[in-house]
Amino acid sequence: MTVELTYQESGHGTPLVLLHAFPLSSAMWATQHWLLADTCRLITPDQRGWGDSPLGDEEPSMDVLVDDLALLLDDLKLDRVVLGGLSMGGYVTMAFLRRYPERVSGLVLANTKAAADPEGAAANRVRIAHALEHTESAETLVENVFGNLLGQTTRSAKPAVADAVKAAILATPPRAAAWAEYAMAKRADSFDVLRAADVPALIIAGEEDALITDADVAAMAEALPDARVVEIPHAGHLTAVEDPTAFDGAVRTLLARV
């Protein structure tokens, strides 16, 4: 059963839906709402369990998140959108593209990858999910996830950004985070989806991203028929938060191509 997602909206023009990273809510897109408001109609949903979106009782699955998003687009009477996401949001974007390619007019894939988790990475996600369920505390995410989210430059030169990200992680509902970890651990390889994507695409990478490799970025770029890659210097895994000006500038170039 789908759930009704809460969302934030700003601006007018081409509809752009951006999906948040793990383990953050749609609040991570706050800067985008004022930097991109003159360029597009920006819609940023909270995935189930985050913000005021209910978690529901469905088994963890990317397909469940796809169904939630499709319902939101139906409610907003949007037949076609530019769709993108960062990290986990990118996984959901590719899963949505698999099911509803006709509803996507452009792609933003930021700090994400098309490959499924190898066995060890999937097992680590399950381990973290079990810890979240056992402790019922987001401290597990600070201990296991926070350290890889920001680039070294951000951690040293922008301590306020690091503090804000840590506070946002501590506010994460543990049950929602566990659900998402299980869903991501089971996600499918998406290279076939990218090869069939006949739309303009933007791949955003962080120069200091500890989680996404150059090989991950190159593999997505090779699979997509019409992709451009933008690497943001001195940024890690959360490029939209660490350098929103550079991130939003890249998005504007994509919107001009759609």
TrEMBL record:
Gene3D superfamilies: alpha/beta hydrolase
Protein's name in the database: Pimeloyl-ACP methyl ester carboxylesterase
InterPro entries, per the entry: AB_hydrolase_1, AB_hydrolase_fold, AB_hydrolase_sf
Taxonomic lineage from the root: Bacteria, Bacillati, Actinomycetota, Actinomycetes, Cryptosporangiales
SUPFAM superfamilies in the record: alpha/beta-Hydrolases
Gene Ontology CC terms: membrane
Sequence ranges assigned to domain AB hydrolase-1 in this UniProt record: 15-244
Species whose genome carries this gene: Cryptosporangium aurantiacum
Pfam families in alphabetical order: Abhydrolase_1 (PF00561)
GO molecular function per UniProt: hydrolase activity
Record key words, sorted: Hydrolase
